[in-house]
Amino acid sequence: MTSIALLILLFNTVRNAIIFNHVHSIDTEIDEMSFVSVLVPARNEEDIIEECIRSLCNQTYSNYEVIVLNDHSTDTTGEILARLTSEFPQLTIMEGGILPSHWIGKPHACHQLAMKAKGEYLLFTDADTIHDSRSISSLVHVAKKNQIDMLSAVPKQQLHLFWEHVAVPFIHTLYLTYLPHDLIMKNPNPQFAAANGQALLFKKESYQAIGGHMAVANSIAEDIDLAIRMKTFGKKLCHASAGEIISCRMYRTSHDVFTGFSKNVFATMHFDMHKLLFFVIHLFITYLLPFITLLFGIIIQDPMISIFSGLSIILTMSLRSIIAMYFGYPLWHAVLHALTASTFIVFAINSAIWCLKKDGTVWKGRRYTLSKKSSALVS
Question: What is the pTM of this model?
Answer without folding.
Answer: 0.91
